[in-house]
């Protein structure tokens, strides 16, 4: 049986290494914040692999480390945060060896991020057309006319009506949902190889949300763009992602094909997330809630971080469990893993 822990540098599982060459290969990623109160282990030994055209859903509660994982891959973690990894490679490049300028050139061209708050992307003092044209011309030697046409094309792709008119307004003149769609469009402008989406559809209504999910999935299939979709909503990502990685307290506790995890989750935390999703079978009944709350990353319990909330916990859980292979492409980090009865 192939096993690896979340606290030691490890190679990708053999199944991940076969077939198409990996676009993203992350092993034992740690992003720690050294504060006066102590060390906050926001990301603690995360390993991820991604091929071209593949969609990975990164799932977990608020505070589980999902967004910091995305920021770490983009090189957007500032002091007092420190990033270390056994391996951090993207498209053949060692990201740990890149200069700040080289990393800046990668962002927006080969790798892009869609933030949860669109105002982290948009400048409130500039019109939309200025921001989108500059985003294109920063990475391509094209005329303003060509850049504008590309902006109009992408705005239409994310469901913005009358895109020519929307280019002429300022962000404050748009609704929150419209601003988010423009932020998504900016991330897609230069056809990056990797897009990291940090809960980008939270502020959108269901109709537009469905449209964007369809367009994003189509984009990945047709152009080979790889996508990491960060969310707390398993209902959304279950129909979007090829694979899922479930995070808790800075660690991945279960990962595998989306169908295998949704249909046969083995970690108690993953099972709790799935049980809390409303369905036709739970109509009129109280939704399941995982007891307790995510522990402070300054004071994590010894061993399995979920043990203080887990109904299966025993004394054995005071030791950190390894991430063990339980299926062809399914790994779980739990001493008492198993399909829920």
UniProtKB/TrEMBL annotation:
Gene Ontology CC annotation, any one: plasma membrane
Membrane topology summary: Peripheral membrane protein
Entry's localization field: Cell inner membrane
Residues annotated as domain ABC transporter: 24-274
GO molecular function, one term: ATP binding
Signal sequence segment: none
GO process terms (BP): peptide transport; transmembrane transport
Main location, first listed in the record: membrane
Pfam families according to UniProt: ABC_tran, oligo_HPY
Membrane-spanning residues: none
Name assigned to this protein: Methionine ABC transporter ATP-binding protein
Species in which this protein is naturally found: Pollutimonas thiosulfatoxidans
